[in-house]
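so im writing up the methods section and need the Fe2OG dioxygenase domain-containing protein record in one place, dumping it here so i stop losing it
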Amino acid sequence: MHDKADRYDEADLSFLELPTFPEDVPTAPLLRISLSRLSKSDPEEISKLWKACCELGFFYLDLRNVSTTEDRPTSPAVDGLNESLKNENGRADSATGDDEREAQVKIEPTREFEVNVHGERLLQDAEDLFRVGRSVFDLPVEEKIKYDLKDQGSYFGYKGYGQGVIDAAGTKDRNEFYNVSKDDILGLSEPLPAPELLDPHRGLLKSFIQQSHALVCLLLGLLNDQLNLPHDKLPSLHRLDSISGDQVRWVHAPPQPMDDRRTALGQHTDFGSVTVLFNRLGGLQVLPPNTDEWCYVKPLRGHAVINLGDAMVKLTAGILRSNIHRVVNPPGQQANHTRMSLVYFARPADDVVLKALDGSTLIDQKRQQNPDGLDDEEITSKEWILRRALGRRQGGDWTKAGGTERGRV
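--- predicted struct ---
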C-alpha cells in the first residue's frame, strides 16, 4: 500500500509564488525517494536509494508525511543507531514538540544533541531559515566582510560576491555565501564572530542542524547495510558531537545582467559525505555520467535534494558516486529573480582519514577490480575540506581545489 504522500497532485510540487520552472530545458533524471518508506524499511525504496547513490549520487527526498512514532522502523541501520546511542546519558534537546499530528521517523534520543528525524520539522526550519538568510544578505557589504574568515584559514563565515573563483583562469563567481559552523552552534567549539542579528536564531539553527544530521545518519546507516560494513561504521564516522567541518550555508545570487549571464558557481564535487539542499528556483545543474549535456535539477516543494560528496567515494573505493554539478542563472522567467539556497553539509569528523574502509567484501572487490584507480594519498577530512574550500577563494591555490571528479578515489 502506497503512502499518502504519493497521492499529491503534481501542482503540490511547484512553488506557486514563483515563476514556473520551464518545461523546455533538460532536467536531470533524479529518483524521488520517500523518507516515510525508508523509515519503514521498504525494500523497494532502499533499493532506489542504493541505485541513486551508486549511479548519479543525487536524488530527491520527499520529507512530507513521514511515518508516525507507532510505525517504528525495523531497519538494522536504524536499530543499530538506536543501540549505539544507549551508552551515553542525557536526553536530547528535541525540536519536535508534542503535536501528535506531526509524524516522525523514530530514533531514540539519548545523546545530548541527538533528535528524531522529523521531515515536517525540517521543512519548517528550512522555511524559517530562508527568511533569516535574507536578512543576513541585506546587511551592508562593509558589515558582512567583517565575518570573512579566510585569512584565518577558515571556510566558515562570509564569502563575498566575486570572492571565489570558478575555474583555473580565476574567473570570479557570482554569488555570496554565509557559512555557520555546526560546532559553534552546538557549543563544541569557541563561538565564531557573527552578525548580531543571528543571535536570536541560534536555537533555530540548532534545530535545523540536528534534524539534518539525524537524516544524514539514517541514510548513512542504510548505505552501511548495503555495503555490508561492520555495524554502525559509517554513522560512527559522523557523530554529531564530533569536531567536524559540518556547516549550514546560505547562498545568495541576484539576477545577472541580461547581456552577460553565465555560471555563478563553477563545476565541482562536494567536499564531504552528504549534502542536504533546499532551494526554490532552478539553476543547479548536474552532469550525468557518460554525457556532455548539463541538466537542470528542478526544485520540488516538500523535498530536499540530497547528494553525496567526495568522502563517500574515498571511503567506499568508488562504489558510491559524488557527481559533478554547478550553478548557473535560473532558467526562463526565473532568471529575473534572486536565487537563494539553504544547505547542510555533513562531513566526517576532522580526524577521519579518507581512505577505503576495511570490513566490506564489496569494497574489497572494488579495490581488486580497479587497483590503478585507488588514491594512495592519506588525508584527513579536515585537511581535504580546507584544501578544496580555500583553493576556490580569490588568491587560493586552484591546483588543490579539485575533488574526485577526475575519477580519483
